[in-house]
């Protein structure tokens, strides 16, 4: 693999988020990383390269041209893709990455699609030591990595297993059209009904727990009072994605004899500060239910869709720069003691933070393979916590992100 011409290829580089990955690599990758940009339109790719001022190669491959995708994937050690909807444009890429033993990261939140390639490729990727790691953007790095850090800190510092972790998000920023297009495509797909399964991404031996245990993992539907934070919280819109990734991490670590804790549970919420936190939580919960109902109905959605950002569009530079996110985590040990965590960064979560997460994930694979969890041999359809772990944590900290754990 070291003889391949590129360490990382950025696919989908002319999209709204893709352009930002090119800028990030131009600023952060360094001369030691051999990288290129790719997509389906050479003219657009060359325009991005010129705009960024990067001296990198341009590769052209349509996401549905299997031969072109295979030729591209064979040339790199790591493939980073931001081209969604991934269920439309990602199948040939994942297939080629498994065949050519090319490590892979993306920013999808399309869990039914992820389920399809877990079923298809887990055994082969695990046998070959190929790390296929979806959900390396804002979905689901803060959730998965934050939970992992809280659990391990609790085990290391207090010497007891973890019983539960709750994550509380606050976000400020804007949406891009690509994210919305992926969400709409997901609701139109045959796999949409699977999104309600809390154990959708778990390995087969942990995907059907007893009913009493399963009930504790159901997605929150109503506002609630969070005693740990002394404020009201609402269901978090990305919870049905992030919690599935965290549960897969927990199940994989249990298989590898490094469990989080007996009957471990994880949930996440949207946090509101006082005053009027109850009113805010109630209003947002109702608004989320209304929006979800609209997007699930094609006729109703057709009235809303023209008012929303289209693919290729997104927030202004000012909105992205002024945005931010905060993820507060509270981990409870089996003896009742608690550990707190905080992940926070400046920059809007769907764009700036997502770009930092996915780019640093790719660079972790390209530059620090020997230091990753499980060493050179670990492979499969992994998660940020099981495939990147402490290496990604330290890279994000060096990039200015707060990742703090305390008793």
Describe this structure in words.
The protein is α/β, with parallel strands linked by helices and 407 residues long. 44% of the residues lie in helices and 20% in strands. It is built from 16 helices and 14 strands. A hairpin with a 4-residue loop joins β8 and β9 (231-235). The chain is globular. The N and C termini lie far apart (43 Å). The model has no long low-confidence stretch (mean pLDDT 94).
User: How much beta, percentage-wise?
Assistant: 15-25%
Task: Going across the biggest sheet, name each strand in turn.
Answer: 3-2-1-4-5-6-13
The low-confidence parts are none
Biggest sheet features: 7 strands, parallel
- Class inferred from helices and paired strands: alpha/beta
What is the helix content?
A: 40-55%
**What's the overall average pLDDT, rounded?**
94
Oligomerization = single chain
Q: Number of DSSP helices? A: 16
Number of beta-strand segments: 14
From N to C, what is the helix and strand string?
EHEHEHEHHEHEHEHHEEHEHHHEEHEHHE
Shape: globular
Query: Rg, please?
Result: 20 Å
Distance N to C terminus: 43 Å
What are the key terms here?
single chain; 407 residues; alpha/beta; 7-stranded parallel β-sheet; 44% helix
Task: Spell out the blueprint of helices and strands.
Layout: E1 6-11, H1 16-28, E2 35-39, H2 42-52, E3 57-60, H3 66-73, E4 76-81, H4 86-89, H5 91-99, E5 103-106, H6 111-128, E6 131-133, H7 141-158, E7 162-172, H8 177-188, H9 211-215, E8 224-226, E9 231-235, H10 239-255, E10 265-271, H11 277-295, H12 298-304, H13 317-322, E11 324-333, E12 338-346, H14 349-367, E13 380-381, H15 384-387, H16 389-398, E14 402-406
Parallel strand pairs: 1-2, 1-4, 2-3, 4-5, 5-6, 6-13, 7-10
Antiparallel strand pairs: 7-11, 8-9, 9-10, 11-12, 12-14
Helix pairs in contact: 1-14, 3-5, 5-6, 7-10, 14-16
């Amino acid at each position: 693999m070291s003889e391949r011409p590129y360490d990382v290829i950025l696919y989908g580089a002319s999209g709204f988020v893709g352009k930002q990955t090119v800028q990030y690599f131009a600023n952060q990758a360094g001369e030691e990383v051999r990288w290129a940009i790719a997509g389906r339109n050479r003219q657009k790719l060359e325009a991005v390269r010129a705009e960024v001022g990067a001296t990198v190669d341009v590769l052209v491959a349509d996401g549905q041209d299997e031969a072109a995708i295979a030729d591209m994937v064979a040339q790199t050690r790591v493939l980073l893709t931001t081209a969604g909807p991934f269920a439309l444009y990602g199948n040939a890429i994942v297939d080629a990455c498994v065949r050519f033993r090319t490590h892979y990261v993306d920013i999808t939140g399309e869990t039914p699609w992820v389920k399809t390639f877990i079923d298809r490729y887990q055994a082969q990727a695990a046998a070959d030591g190929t790390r296929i790691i979806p959900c390396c953007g804002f979905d689901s790095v803060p959730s998965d990595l934050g939970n992992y850090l809280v659990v391990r800190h609790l085990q290391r510092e207090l010497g007891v297993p973890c019983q539960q972790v709750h994550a509380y998000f606050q976000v400020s920023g804007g949406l891009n059209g690509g994210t919305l297009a992926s969400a709409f495509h997901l609701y139109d797909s045959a796999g949409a009904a699977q999104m309600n399964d809390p154990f959708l991404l778990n390995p087969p031996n942990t995907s059907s727990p007893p009913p009493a245990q399963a009930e504790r993992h159901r997605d929150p539907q109503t506002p609630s009072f969070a005693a740990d934070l002394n404020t009201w919280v609402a269901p978090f819109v990305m919870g049905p994605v992030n919690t599935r990734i965290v549960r897969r991490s927990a199940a994989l670590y249990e298989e590898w004899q490094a469990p989080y804790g007996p009957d471990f549970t994880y949930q996440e919420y949207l946090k509101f500060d006082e005053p009027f936190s109850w009113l805010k939580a109630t209003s947002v919960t109702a608004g989320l239910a209304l929006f979800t109902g609209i997007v699930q109905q094609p006729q109703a959605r057709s009235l809303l869709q023209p008012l929303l950002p289209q693919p290729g569009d997104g927030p202004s530079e000012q909105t992205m720069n002024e945005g931010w996110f905060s993820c507060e985590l509270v981990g409870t040990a089996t003896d009742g003691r608690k550990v707190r965590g905080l992940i926070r960064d400046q920059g809007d979560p769907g764009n700036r933070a997502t770009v930092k997460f996915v780019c640093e994930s790719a660079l972790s694979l390209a530059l620090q393979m020997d230091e990753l969890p499980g060493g050179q041999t670990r492979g499969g359809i992994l998660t940020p916590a099981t495939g990147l772990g402490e290496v990604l944590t330290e890279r994000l900290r060096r990039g200015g992100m707060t990742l703090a754990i305390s008793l």
